[in-house]
């Protein structure tokens, strides 16, 4: 991914830590160099995961990418958004995507400096049925991202971090 594309998807400065209504607007951009990018800000609430999945699927298909690429991008965005919602509830987060060359970059920014950890999912069977409001033990997210992405990582950004993944952008 070129520095030009990287700079384009980094987005606005979130140092203030306040939600700005302009963060909630969907932006689809195209630069003179040709890459396309999307940025969408949210407040970190559980329902943004579903919204993010719909946005990613729609945009990837509008860019003419294959169904399999769309499915992988949706799953990656879902995992990254879920992690951001858990790490920074009720705080601003941002979903960003960029298409350049043969790569589709999906990333999520949040204000937590803590990097996501790969954990071991609890596969044991409970002896009793868990309560309806029992927390999901999790542990699969970053493993799913690693298995679907060509490359992935985390970078410090704007008093927080961006967790990103690059997929091969297969065309229809």
From TrEMBL:
Keyword Transferase belongs to the record: yes
Pfam family, one: HATPase_c_2
Matching InterPro entries: Anti-sigma-factor_SerPK, HATPase_C_sf, HATPase_dom
Alphabetic keyword roster: Kinase, Serine/threonine-protein kinase, Transferase
Domain Histidine kinase/HSP90-like ATPase: 44-166
Domain of life according to the entry: Bacteria
CDD domains per UniProt: HATPase_RsbW-like
GO molecular function list: protein serine/threonine kinase activity
SUPFAM superfamilies: ATPase domain of HSP90 chaperone/DNA topoisomerase II/histidine kinase (SSF55874)
Region (Disordered): 111-141
Record's protein name: Anti-sigma regulatory factor (Ser/Thr protein kinase)
Organism: Actinomadura livida
Lineage of origin: Bacteria, Bacillati, Actinomycetota, Actinomycetes, Streptosporangiales
